[in-house]
Amino acid sequence: MTARPDTREFFEARLRAIGEERYHDRHPFHQRLHSGDCTPDQVRAWVINRYYYQSRIPMKDAAFMSRVSDPALRRAWRSRIEDHDGRAPGEGGIARWLKLAEGVGLDPDYVASEVGILPATRFAVDAYVRFVRDEPLLLAVASSLTELFAPKIHADRIAGLLKHYEFANETTISYFKHRLTEAPQDVAFGLAWVLDRAVTKADQDAAARALIFKTEVLWAQLDALWSAYVEPSRIPPGAWQPGEGLL
């Protein structure tokens, strides 16, 4: 006997519960960062490795759009690429992230070169791009729903950085401030799209697993940072070493 699907309301609550349990705001690295307990080099390591994730967001969105035959979905989705790439040089989330890099004392060209990325960061982020490129559209969209939980972490980050770190100012935290308005717009569309199309129990289970996968991609990146730069501080060969790439 085929299991009955959850109601729309219960399914949405199920997706939100995944964030309560698994989103990376619960990771000790973020708790350390937001409370001011990261050293300058730990902050730099986070900025360098998170850049790789930021740089791949428009690439995964372009890969997604290349498979979409519905013009309405493409129109709704393409703003995500513009949010990160901007409409002109020096605009968009990636450019704002490089301002953060400069603020913490890193050469933006070094960061943009992607030299020194932790192997686990690269593997996790590339796996996410492949997932969005290759899995059914429903699962690709569902994996983006970590944005449901992003506004809180951005608000906590803004407050924590401004309180605890000298580098924090309107320019260096501008990426996070923009995401306070961009992420809710994106997720309102994405959530409705998933809720409308996950009409069977199998669809709903698969969408939930896709969201869990994305939380694991984010968590794995922080695990890698913790292992390499916090404790036991084992930096893999080829990864960024403190003192490299500074202004």
From TrEMBL:
It catalyses: 6-(2-amino-2-carboxyethyl)-7,8-dioxo-1,2,3,4,7,8-hexahydroquinoline-2,4-dicarboxylate + 3 O2 = pyrroloquinoline quinone + 2 H2O2 + 2 H2O + H(+). One of its GO terms (molecular function) is pyrroloquinoline-quinone synthase activity. Pathway: Cofactor biosynthesis; pyrroloquinoline quinone biosynthesis. Its EC number is 1.3.3.11. The keyword Oxidoreductase applies. GO terms for biological process: pyrroloquinoline quinone biosynthetic process. Residues 13-223 form the Thiaminase-2/PQQC domain. InterPro entries: Haem_Oase-like_multi-hlx, PqqC, PqqC-like, Thiaminase-2/PQQC. SUPFAM superfamilies: Heme oxygenase-like. Keywords: Oxidoreductase, PQQ biosynthesis. Belongs to the PqqC family. Ring cyclization and eight-electron oxidation of 3a-(2-amino-2-carboxyethyl)-4,5-dioxo-4,5,6,7,8,9-hexahydroquinoline-7,9-dicarboxylic-acid to PQQ. NCBIfam families: PQQ_syn_pqqC. HAMAP family: PQQ_syn_PqqC. This is Pyrroloquinoline-quinone synthase. The gene is pqqC.
